[in-house]
């Protein structure tokens, strides 16, 4: 059994590529080995900023032989009087065997001639050599590049290649990169390790690199870092402010992790904690130390009591250089924080009201006025939302106060420098000026969710302001005639649409978006005469856009495509869907539950059977009650009366409002299966398409009412099996 | 090491690597990349190797000289080599050695940073180089320039001279840097800094700047149409600088920004195409030259 090593040596790879390439590499290699009939005991990828490696242990020397059975001509054509015919001779020749080796076996179609062929397994070395270039080429990541004069692409330039089967080099060449690469046993150590590193054999890889100051095993490197950081936090009596994404990145920024601890002057704790942690984490990749497990107040004005004036840095330098490295890092952080303090002081010299005034001078977008104009439109929407959703006075007052203020920090210096702090700084400045926490929190939260997976506003006022913010963007950009298309969505309108729906769902708010859009587009027409807005057309476009957002959000959440289509597909009217997106969500959740509990097929069968015939009925799709449209006097059989009684019970729920009606509606539909079977197929069954027109119409109407009642729940025709 | 000696050392080092040592280009620009020695020469098949210091103007970065780390006018040292050579990272590290920065005594890292200039329609991938946590250099393999694929690929190395110098001289303020043995950076540049900041933030006339932008845009468009990429680039750079001045006045929102940048990019693409055409018509004369 042999061990194989492939090391792809590179210039420094992006940290996320080091991480994401490893599972890719393992999957591709396993697939190819399987296809190549090579077994193995263990297969593991690893990597550092300067290399990706895969080690395979327990490889056989050769592929298994490939034994195949091939079917030839029918036996009676292959042999005459025990002698092979030309057909048999030709078949044997094609299979590379003697005619005597042909076997005759029975098949469904009578006896046939069979041959067994054996393809001798190639050496593992030859197989690996032929696979390696494909492995390198099939890795995928963001923004691959070319370099030099070559056409080959990779995440960063490839610089060396080690391919060893035990102690022997597996010959491989990559010719499309500049300069071309030939496999060897020469690796490289840590950047500070002089000269090439000779790998004697595949099995000695990790140990040889460790001696060259490279911890090649990503997991082990992560453990080392975690251990060092946690020990430091314990010593400081604090906890790590270490989001998972930062930890992942730290692992792949070093080949030889060493902890550096630094301190800054306590005066910097007068900065807001988000400023410190943004600088430390995002700009410097340091780990801040947090004082307690208690959730920090998002409106805290100073970091005092929240963070320690310390930071942890995972360096890639030598132990002997630790003092210089610490000094350098402290210096950088100090300069960045001094900058931030400068911005804070400059911002505090101005009032938020002055900044709101300054928004008049900032163009929002051509044809859409200034950011102040945008704020006013946003405030108008916030007010409309408060009324539509019947929001209580306290919250509504705070929302009306916060709306015109919410963009003021866009002209602050701090947000100019740290755009990721928009909203956060605005809220803090307002709080410091004496605004209420509710107002400040609404301003802070009105940017949430910032993207997929981000937190939603926690406060009611924040949620309202966030809705208004997204509606304003959608209305204004759509009013300019722009629509997101394909990969082009420069104003992040899809994200805005998603956020709008997510907030409504999260709050459980029933918002009539059809009415909101009707009112808002008419208002926009008056505000922006130059855009020659046609309110009805604009509203229709926006609602159609929101339908698509709603459907794609549900699919992203894992709802089956057919369930989503049944509730939000094009066969469902925009009115029905967007008079209340929360209602649509309740229905799709119910359908999923029914499907999970295997109750959906029964309901589906009933509705689909009724619907097929109901197409020939003369009944409007919105009639939900049999009263007045079905005439019991025309009944010829008790099965018809039974269906009517089901319809009457269903009608109570179908015509009710609110989401509570859907559960009983679905249950009754399911239970009506027996009644409907009796109607169609039982002893008392009737012929719906009978010759008597009045009776036929009456029976079709029974079915049409059922179809209409079911449509309250979903368009069952869209459901798959 | 004195500020002027840093430039002299880098000139010497890159001259030894076979680079042409050129002088700054005489139009305001936000980065050394915008010099025609980079932005035009990175286009097309002809080999090129150049190094030059370049003064840069970023009006929004001005702080009236009050901030120790920021100024609206500063210097980059720019290297561009096409095609990008093997072992260029090691060559770069050797250039730091000549400045007295020895890798073994520091934590020097190449951290992913993908550069993109939306105004130039250019992008590349590479790193920012960290020296003990301080970003001192930008390293970029150009993939596209003016919307054209770069073939071969150039490597661009941009040193932030003030940051390096502050580190080397161990001073806390850019204004305290020693330019030579007698004069400080502040002696030379502070008088300009205050006045320029006042202009950028207060005294400029946004209406007129908008007119200037439109004029330069029209001029660039006409020059491209006339098949004159070099002067057209000058006016694209003027557009870009005028746009930066407008930004300093805070009169352009994030949304409007996108649209204006799109207009400049459109011109930059046309300039790139015209330049490539001009070189092609000449038969790419540098292709025959000995490699740098």
3D structure, described in words:
The complex is a heterodimer of chains A (721) and B (292). With 721 residues, chain A is an alpha+beta fold. Chain A contains 27 helices and 18 strands. Chain A has a 5-stranded antiparallel sheet with strand order 2-3-1-9-10, covered by helices on one side. A 4-stranded antiparallel sheet of chain A has the order 15-17-18-16, sandwiched between helices. Chain A has a 3-stranded antiparallel sheet with strand order 4-8-7. Chain A is flat. Chain B is an alpha+beta fold and 292 residues long. Chain B contains 8 helices and 9 strands. Chain B has helices at residues 3-16, 36-39, 88-98, 161-169, 185-203, 206-225, 229-248, 254-281, and strands spanning 20-21, 48-57, 73-82, 108-112, 115-117, 122-131, 134-145, 148-149, 155-160. In chain B, helix 6 (206-225) packs antiparallel against helix 7 (229-248). The longest helix of chain B has 28 residues, at 254-281. Chain B is globular and about 55 Å long. The two termini of chain B are 29 Å apart. The relative contact order of chain B is 0.16. The model of chain B has no long low-confidence stretch (mean pLDDT 94). Classes of the chains: A alpha+beta (721), B alpha+beta (292). Chains A and B meet through helix 9 of A and strand 4, strand 6, strand 7 and helix 8 of B.
SSE topology:
The complex is a heterodimer of chains A (721) and B (292).
Chain A: E1 2-10, H1 15-35, E2 42-48, E3 51-59, E4 66-74, H2 75-78, E5 79-80, E6 83-84, H3 86-95, E7 103-107, E8 110-119, H4 124-138, E9 158-165, E10 168-169, E11 173-174, E12 181-182, E13 186-188, E14 196-198, H5 205-211, H6 218-236, E15 239-240, H7 244-251, E16 258-263, H8 273-283, E17 287-290, E18 307-315, H9 322-348, H10 352-358, H11 371-388, H12 393-402, H13 413-417, H14 424-432, H15 437-445, H16 460-479, H17 493-507, H18 513-527, H19 535-556, H20 561-568, H21 574-578, H22 581-596, H23 600-614, H24 638-654, H25 662-671, H26 673-681, H27 693-711
Antiparallel strand pairs in A: 1-3, 1-9, 2-3, 4-8, 5-6, 7-8, 9-10, 11-12, 13-14, 15-17, 16-18, 17-18
Chain B: H1 3-16, E1 20-21, H2 36-39, E2 48-57, E3 73-82, H3 88-98, E4 108-112, E5 115-117, E6 122-131, E7 134-145, E8 148-149, E9 155-160, H4 161-169, H5 185-203, H6 206-225, H7 229-248, H8 254-281
Parallel strand pairs in B: 1-2
Antiparallel strand pairs in B: 2-3, 3-9, 4-6, 5-6, 6-7, 7-8, 7-9
Helix pairs in contact in B: 6-7, 6-8, 7-8
């Amino acid at each position: 059994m042999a061990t194989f090593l492939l090391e792809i040596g590179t210039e420094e790879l992006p940290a996320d590529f080091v991480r994401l390439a490893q599972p890719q590499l393992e999957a591709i290699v396993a697939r190819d080995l399987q296809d190549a009939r090579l077994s193995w005991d263990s297969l593991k990828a690893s990597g550092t900023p300067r290399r990706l490696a895969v080690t395979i242990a327990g490889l056989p020397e050769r592929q298994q032989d490939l034994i195949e059975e091939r079917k030839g001509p029918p036996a009676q054509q292959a042999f005459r009087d025990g002698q092979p015919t030309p057909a048999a001779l030709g078949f044997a020749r094609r299979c590379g065997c003697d005619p005597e080796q042909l076997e005759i076996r029975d098949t469904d179609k009578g006896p046939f001639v069979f041959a067994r062929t054996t393809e001798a397994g190639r050496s593992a070395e030859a197989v690996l050599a032929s696979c390696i270039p494909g492995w390198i080429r099939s890795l995928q990541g963001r923004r691959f590049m070319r370099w030099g004069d070559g056409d080959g692409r990779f995440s960063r330039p490839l610089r060396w290649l080690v391919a060893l089967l035990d102690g022997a080099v597996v010959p491989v060449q990559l010719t499309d990169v500049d300069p071309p690469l030939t496999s060897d046993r020469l690796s490289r150590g840590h950047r500070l390790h002089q000269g090439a590193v000779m790998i004697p054999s595949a099995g000695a890889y990790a140990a040889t690199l460790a001696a060259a100051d490279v911890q090649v095993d990503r997991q082990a490197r992560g453990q080392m870092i975690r251990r060092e950081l946690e020990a430091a936090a314990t010593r400081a009596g604090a906890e790590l402010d270490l989001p998972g994404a930062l930890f992942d990145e730290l692992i792949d920024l070093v080949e030889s992790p060493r902890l550096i601890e630094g301190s800054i002057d306590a005066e910097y704790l007068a900065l807001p904690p988000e400023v410190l942690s943004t600088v430390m984490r995002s700009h410097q990749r340091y780990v801040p130390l947090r004082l307690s497990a208690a959730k920090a107040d998002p409106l805290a004005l100073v970091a005092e009591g929240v963070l320690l004036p310390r930071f942890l840095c995972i360096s890639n330098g030598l132990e002997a250089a630790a003092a210089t490295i610490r000094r350098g890092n402290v210096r950088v952080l100090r300069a960045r924080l001094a900058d931030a303090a400068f911005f804070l002081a400059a911002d505090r010299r101005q009032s938020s009201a002055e900044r709101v005034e300054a928004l008049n001078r900032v163009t929002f977008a051509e044809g859409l006025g200034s950011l102040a104009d945008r704020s006013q439109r946003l405030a108008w929407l916030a007010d409309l939302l408060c009324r539509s959703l019947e929001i209580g006075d306290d919250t509504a007052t705070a929302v009306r106060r916060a709306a015109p203020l919410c963009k003021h920090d866009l002209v602050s210096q701090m947000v100019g420098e740290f755009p990721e702090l928009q909203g956060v700084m605005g809220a803090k400045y307002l709080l410091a000026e004496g605004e209420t926490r509710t107002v400040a929190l609404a301003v802070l939260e009105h940017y949430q969710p910032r993207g997929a997976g981000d937190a939603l506003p926690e406060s009611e006022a924040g949620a309202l302001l966030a809705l208004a913010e997204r509606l304003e963007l959608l209305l204004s950009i759509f009013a300019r005639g722009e629509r997101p298309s394909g990969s082009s969505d420069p104003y992040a309108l899809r994200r805005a649409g998603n956020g709008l729906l997510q907030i409504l769902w999260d709050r459980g708010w029933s918002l009539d978006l059809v009415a909101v859009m009707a009112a808002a587009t008419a208002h926009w027409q008056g505000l922006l005469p130059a855009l020659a807005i046609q309110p009805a057309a604009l509203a229709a476009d926006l609602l159609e856009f929101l339908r698509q957002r709603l459907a794609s959000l549900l699919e992203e959440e894992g709802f089956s495509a057919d369930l989503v289509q049944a509730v939000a597909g094009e066969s469902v009217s925009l009115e029905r869907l967007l008079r209340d997106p929360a209602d649509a969500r309740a229905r799709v959740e119910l359908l999923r539950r029914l499907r999970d509990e295997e109750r959906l097929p029964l309901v589906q069968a009933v509705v689909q059977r009724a619907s097929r015939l109901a197409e020939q009925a003369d009944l409007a799709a919105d009639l939900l009650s049999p009263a007045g449209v079905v005439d019991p006097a025309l009944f010829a059989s008790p099965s018809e009366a039974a269906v009517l009684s089901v319809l009457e019970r269903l009608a109570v729920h179908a015509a009710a409002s609110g989401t509570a009606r859907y559960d009983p509606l679905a249950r009754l539909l399911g239970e009506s299966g027996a009644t409907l079977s009796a109607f169609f197929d039982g002893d008392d069954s009737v012929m719906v398409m009978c010759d008597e027109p009045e009776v036929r119409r009456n029976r079709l109407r029974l079915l049409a009412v059922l179809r209409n009642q079911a449509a309250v729940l979903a368009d069952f025709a869209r459901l798959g099996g | 090491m004195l500020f002027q000696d840093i430039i002299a050392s880098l000139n010497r080092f890159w001259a030894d690597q076979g680079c042409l040592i050129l002088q700054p280009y005489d139009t305001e620009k936000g980065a050394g990349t915008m010099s025609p020695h980079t932005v035009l020469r990175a286009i097309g098949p002809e080999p090129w190797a150049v190094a030059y210091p370049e003064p840069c103007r970023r009006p929004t970065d001005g702080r009236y000289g009050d901030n120790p780390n920021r100024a609206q006018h500063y210097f980059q040292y720019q290297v561009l080599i096409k095609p990008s050579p093997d072992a260029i990272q090691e060559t770069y590290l050797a250039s730091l050695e000549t400045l007295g920065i020895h890798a073994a005594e520091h934590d020097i890292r190449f951290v992913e940073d993908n550069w993109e200039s939306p105004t130039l329609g250019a992008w590349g991938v590479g790193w920012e180089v960290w020296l003990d946590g301080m970003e001192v250099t930008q390293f970029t393999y150009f993939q596209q320039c003016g919307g054209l694929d770069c073939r071969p690929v150039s490597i661009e190395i941009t040193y932030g001279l003030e940051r390096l110098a502050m580190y080397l001289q161990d001073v806390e303020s850019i204004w305290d840097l020693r330019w030579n043995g007698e004069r400080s950076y502040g002696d030379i540049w502070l008088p300009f800094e205050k006045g320029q900041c006042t202009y950028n933030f207060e005294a400029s006339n946004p209406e007129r700047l908008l007119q200037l932008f439109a004029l330069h845009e029209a001029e660039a468009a006409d020059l491209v149409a006339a098949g004159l990429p070099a002067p057209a680039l000058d006016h694209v750079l003027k557009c870009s600088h005028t746009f930066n001045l407008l930004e300093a006045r805070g009169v352009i929102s994030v949304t409007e920004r996108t649209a204006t940048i799109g207009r400049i990019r459109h011109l930059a693409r046309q300039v790139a195409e015209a330049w490539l055409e001009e070189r092609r018509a000449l038969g790419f004369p540098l292709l025959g030259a000995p490699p740098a």
